[in-house]
Amino acid sequence: MKQSTLQQSLQAACLTLLFATAASQAEIYKWVDANGKTHYSEKKDDAGRAKVEEVKIRPSADSANAAPAQSWQDKEIEFRKRQVQKQEEDDKAAKANAAKPSPRVDYRKDDDTTRCNLAKDILSGKAVHGNGARTDANDRAIAERDKSTYCR
């Protein structure tokens, strides 16, 4: 069975964390050789017959006060929240920038010129119904008839 990249990455991260923890818990030894030179090592045997002293290492104040690392689940939740927020902002911007219909031409004056212009606007797709609905096949058929009747 093939492992996903995420699983492999997670396993690698766990192993790295395990080794880092083990390395940070390593014991440090100090000894002085026959020439009076001070040496430090992680192995007690490196000192040979010299007197070995274990060095106690205290964790730094920064590491003690550091905030615990977030789990990947927490990071994923925050990421998804940011995505939703960004999508909402994009939707608001799109609505604000949406093409607003141009003001309607007043076709109430009932003469041949206005009926001809209305028919042309319907056929070109510029005119819409008062409620904003698009024109349909019936509207276009009537506009064709009006165009042939009123446009000369």
UniProtKB/TrEMBL annotation:
InterPro entries, alphabetized: DUF4124
Is S-adenosyl-L-methionine among this UniProt entry's keywords? no
DUF4124 domain sequence ranges: 15-70
Q: Where is the signal peptide?
A: 1-26
Q: Does the keyword Transmembrane helix apply?
A: no
What is the designated name of this protein? Uncharacterized protein DUF4124
Q: Which UniProt keywords apply?
A: Signal
> Which ranges are annotated Basic and acidic residues under compositional bias?
39-59, 73-94, 103-112
